[in-house]
Amino acid sequence: MREKKLTVLPKLEKMLVQMGENIKLARLRRKLSTEQVAERANISRPTLWSIEKGAGGVSMAAYAQVLFVLGLEKDLLKLAGDDPLGRKLQDAELIVKGRAPKTPQ
């Protein structure tokens, strides 16, 4: 069975590249080698290089491990923290299909 290849949109690709550059700069500021970070994050050096290049095929867990090693894991909590569209939908009181109520047995 062929594996489905993930297609990353150009805008997202640019964001991943920027994030990879930020991770690399954070590593360099801490004067850590790729070998040290990869070992501490329990990933291979090629995986770390892919992260620093902003590769879309690397798992989010690997990115999270590297951020943890660099002391930046709290940045993950900022993802989707502010949800203006969700708040607008909530404010508009749109009906969202929910689960059916449980029937008594």
Automatic annotation (TrEMBL):
Pfam family example for this protein?
HTH_31
Question: InterPro entries, per this entry?
Answer: Cro/C1-type_HTH, Lambda_DNA-bd_dom_sf
Q: What residues does the HTH cro/C1-type domain cover? A: 23-77
SUPFAM superfamilies per record: lambda repressor-like DNA-binding domains
Q: Which GO terms describe its molecular function?
A: DNA binding
Q: Which SMART domains match?
A: HTH_XRE
Q: What is this protein called in UniProt?
A: Helix-turn-helix domain-containing protein
Tell me the organism.
Dawidia cretensis
